[in-house]
Specification:
By secondary structure, the protein is of the alpha/beta class. The chain folds into 2 domains: 2-93, Udp-n-acetylmuramoylalanyl-d-glutamate--2,6- Diaminopimelate Ligase, Chain: A, domain 1 (3-Layer(aba) Sandwich); 108-292, Hexapeptide repeat proteins (UDP N-Acetylglucosamine Acyltransferase, domain 1). Helices cover 15% and strands 31% of the residues. It has 5 helices and 34 strands. It has helices at 9-16, 51-55, 82-93, 288-299, 301-308; strands spanning 2-8, 19-21, 27-31, 41-45, 61-64, 75-78, 108-109, 114-115, 120-121, 126-127, 132-133, 138-139, 144-145, 150-151, 156-159, 164-167, 170-173, 179-182, 187-188, 193-195, 201-204, 209-210, 215-216, 221-222, 227-228, 233-234, 239-240, 245-246, 251-252, 257-258, 263-264, 269-270, 279-281, 286-287. It has a 10-stranded mixed β-sheet, covered by helices on one side. An 8-stranded parallel β-sheet has the order 7-10-13-18-21-24-27-30, with no helix packed on it. The radius of gyration is 23 Å and the shape is globular. The termini are far apart.
Length: 309
């Protein structure tokens, strides 16, 4: 997320009441998670295991829970709880704004787009032309929908990321200030849920089609012309390249990549990144031909044992 205007390091430190290392006027452009940071961004880190990764990332401001040597050209914000203070900044720069109408006055809706009854369209939503949103579709704030998009009833675009920090008294949620971006000619079935990014975008590429009851986690990027069948669950921060097919009840772990034109057979657990242009099956995931051979050989075990007697 980029701030509405450039902030100074001193101004940011004042908001979260923290000490800092760096010039008072060091420029701060925004805040992002580590996988999407760019120069001028704040990134937070609260575990020594990840200090080096954060300090060496593209982010130029590191919100950290220990005073360490500051890399050249960067600045530090020293906090006893970076997770909490990252949330404080989210609340400050993108506060929740309650709705009082079904279609926000700040929403932009394109020509020939049809919005069926009982839909909710949030603040600063953009919907392109020739779209059809069936009854009871919910579109949270800041969502972007392209042209010629069809969304069926009960689908929710832009709910919060499933991202929590365990505390002694329960779980704290990392607040989401990202967006959902739906490109042109996308079809989304009934009862789908697409979570917004924590600080970036969850993106569904042009021409992709989602069946009913598909879940897409935060910050996931789905490419162009993909097919995703019913009851598939895609975790956060997944990259699905172009023309991938996921059949029913596929599940993925987070942070993986599925290559272009890969086919994932039904009920497969995608536990690691896989190359494109191949078919996969099973949990743990394997190329489908190899997996099916293994299953065929398992069936032959009684016969083999009989021959060994």
């Amino acid at each position: 997320m980029k701030f509405p205007k450039i902030q100074s390091l001193k101004e940011i430190a004042k908001i979260i009441n923290s000490n800092y290392i760096g010039a008072d006027d060091f420029q701060v452009h925004g805040m992002n998670e580590i996988h999407v940071v760019t120069p001028g961004d704040i990134v937070f880190v609260d575990h020594p295991k990840y200090y080096d990764k954060a300090l060496q990332s593209a982010a130029t401001i590191v919100l950290i829970n220990k005073e360490v040597t500051c890399p050249e050209g960067k600045a530090l914000l020293i906090s006893d709880d970076p997770f909490r203070d990252f949330n404080t900044l989210t609340k400050h720069f993108r506060p929740f704004v309650a709705a009082n109408v079904s279609v926000a006055t700040s929403a932009t809706i394109g020509k020939n787009t049809i919005i069926q009854p009982n839909c909710f369209i949030g603040n600063n939503v953009t919907i392109g032309k020739n779209c059809l949103l069936h009854a009871n579709v919910i579109v949270y704030d800041n969502t972007i929908i392209g042209d010629n998009v069809t969304i069926h009833s009960g689908t929710v675009l832009g709910a919060d990321a499933f991202y929590y920090k365990k505390r002694p008294d329960g779980f704290d949620q990392l607040l989401s200030c990202g967006r959902v971006v739906i490109e042109n000619n996308v079809g989304i079935g009934a009862l789908c849920t697409i979570d917004k990014g924590v600080t970036g975008d969850t993106t569904i590429g042009e021409g992709t089609k989602l069946d009913n009851q598909v879940h897409v986690g935060h910050d996931t990027i789905i490419g162009k012309k993909c097919l995703i069948a019913s009851q598939t669950g895609i975790a956060g921060c997944v990259i699905i390249e172009d023309e991938v097919t996921l059949w029913g009840q596929v599940g993925t772990t987070s942070g993986i990549t599925i290559g272009t034109k890969a086919v994932i057979m039904g009920q497969t657990g995608v536990t690691k990144s896989v190359e494109g242009g191949k078919s996969y099956f099973g949990t743990p995931i394997q190329e489908s031909r190899e997996k099916l051979k293994q299953l065929a050989n398992v069936k032959r075990i009684p016969e083999i044992l009989e021959k060994l007697k």
